[in-house]
Design the sequence.
């Protein structure tokens, strides 16, 4: 068996010398997961059961479903943009990076579930159900931010995986933003549980917007400014 | 933090110099979303509940579902061809373009929902439900045309994102076609609401056909003509 | 407007000169559709509702579902292999080819629906329902074969789209095989309707096997033979 | 017809000479299937039906669903990493390899079904149902390991398909690991059926972890060690 391992070791060196796009499959796989998650959200937009003539009323009645759909779509979209901005700077991937990435995808895949929880609670639950659903959404937000924290931390410690010219400092800064995400979703959950569900919902809607405007994707803005110069 | 931003800024310049296929991920992600949406439509083709011996009758009974499936399949297919024709002319993407693209995908993802609404209303609703469902379908058509309008407008203003040899004029012309789409779907919705549901359905079926035959993908036709010369 | 068209025409020439992988998006999109369809089939493998202690019995009871799953999985797999073998020989795609391809994908996407029909009829329907379901499956088989016929016919008439070294004869031969598929599925449907449902089911199971063994993918076999020489 | 075959044969030689990324479509297709399967798992995380005020209780009540989700997510993730590690070493694919790959995907696609079985049995079934569900999960584990065995065996016998520098020994070693997987899942099933369901569940949870830590993806670990030297 030891002999087998040795020969495997040799394989690696020879194969990897000829490979540059080591992240291609991780990216393709992640894009598919993001695409499926963002489309699964629409499955919650169910045609409401209603008596003949009652469709308009029951469509309007399920407004929380539409709001939850928009919020979660924005959230997944921001995560995809973040993911793109991150792997843009990664030259090759090792197993540790794959697992951190699978952690991010695991958490993203939970969003349709907690989104459905929130719209269900607002539609049919009582005040206690709403607090439970908002807290569950916040917990997934915390888990997702923590997964990004793990990914950024891993990259800041493995400069050999990064593109030439990318400094470790970049992912150290991202790490701070991810840690702030953990805190922000914890606060949103606490507000929802002890203070006010509507306030928490507004915070949960605004958080992706904030990350969308400030995240590593801000290169688009920077580039355009540069072009004007 | 300001120092961190500076170093990030430097990263960008160095990384982006070596990247050409900046749109590859946006394209892969969009293709996956289109593929999922076009396949989700088939989920509405449910096996009808029926007593033993009643399958044929209940299959024939749900003919509006088949018509809605074909219509929406055509609509998504035309959107995919449009998307392909558009990104064919885009050299690289910035955040603004990504958000416009996410807007298009957001609207496309709503099509299975309103398709289900229409077939449900025709099958089980009354005349009022049919008007509601046709109006909802038209609203999504308007939103989708508006998203294309946003995308084309953005591209006509950001020539630095386009392939060499693509004139801004091209996307200015597309912008007009998208604006006509907004108007056309508004008219279809108004006809469905105030005049006649069947007439509106025919218009909704014909609109994708019209766009399919005249859209930027007409290069196929042009090319073949050129080959014969 | 005519001026706009002219400038678009110029765009085309200049852009297309620099593009070779014109089929990349059609292939990526098709792969995603095939992957979704093949995975949607598994959604019919539902956990049966049963009283505590009755799971084994109800799992065994739904054996037609498993058979239908295997049959349709094979069918989709063979279609994917065909698709791969076909686009392997295509250099670039025009709009006509895209529509023929969308026709194939449209028909493939119907397979989970008719698969569910068949297993439902065998499980809960009477003899008449079974004939209806088998006929519906055969109709989709006919439509799918006809879509391939359309695609092969188109390619045999547009040699400018093919890879260098691919003769028009190849797609003329494939066209015959697709036409035979139309006939074979028509016969299977007729047998199911007028003669015997079990015999028709066996034919429907064997047809993909036959196509899998003889289709254009036979290059694998040929190549291995060549390697041994 | 013989003439047609001859000309096809010529096609092959000429086309294939110019193709290197023959596995690109198999990889893209497989990635999409893995992504869909891993996301379908989340569909089992259903919003529980509950009276107003009862959401928290019914969410906590369905803890087996969460455990089953995590277990199966890990299992699919490990399979994806294995798949990546395997095709990393494959230069081109023939039909035999495609069918072995389709066998792996077929088995992976069954995981959401047996995962749902297990969580259903733990939630609502009796002791007998639990034994049935665990056995069914183990059977899919056996089938999946056997599919990998088939794939590895095929690759160990077709060195002409491998990347330069990859020894046949590598896939012979992997073949042993796959065979051990068949045995391990058989034991887990037997333990679940005759000894203890909880013990079997723990084994089923640990098996993917074991394979994740020791599989061909261990190159990540090896590489990092090399980097430190």
Sequence:
């Amino acid at each position: 068996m030891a002999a087998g391992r040795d020969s495997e070791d040799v394989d690696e060196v020879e194969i990897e010398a000829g490979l540059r796009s080591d992240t291609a499959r991780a990216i393709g796989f992640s894009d598919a997961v993001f695409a499926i998650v963002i489309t699964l959200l629409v499955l919650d937009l169910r045609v409401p059961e209603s008596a003949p003539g009652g469709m308009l009323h029951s469509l309007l009645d399920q407004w929380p479903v539409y709001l939850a759909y928009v919020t979660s779509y924005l959230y997944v979209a921001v995560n995809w943009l973040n993911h793109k901005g991150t792997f843009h700077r990664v030259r090759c991937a090792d197993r540790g990076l794959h697992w951190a990435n699978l952690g991010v995808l695991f958490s993203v895949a939970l969003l349709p579930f907690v989104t459905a929880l929130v719209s269900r609670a607002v539609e049919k639950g009582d005040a206690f159900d709403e607090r439970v659903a908002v807290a569950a959404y916040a917990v997934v937000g915390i888990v997702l931010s923590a997964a990004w924290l793990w990914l950024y931390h891993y990259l800041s410690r493995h400069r050999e995986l990064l593109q030439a010219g990318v400094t470790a400092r970049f992912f150290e800064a991202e790490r701070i933003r991810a840690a702030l995400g953990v805190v922000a979703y914890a606060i949103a959950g606490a507000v929802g549980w002890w203070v006010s569900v509507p306030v928490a919902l507004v915070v949960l809607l605004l958080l992706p917007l904030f990350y969308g405007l400030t995240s590593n994707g801000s290169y688009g803005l920077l580039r355009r400014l540069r072009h004007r110069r």
Summary: The interface with chain B takes residues 32 of chain D (CB under 8 Å).
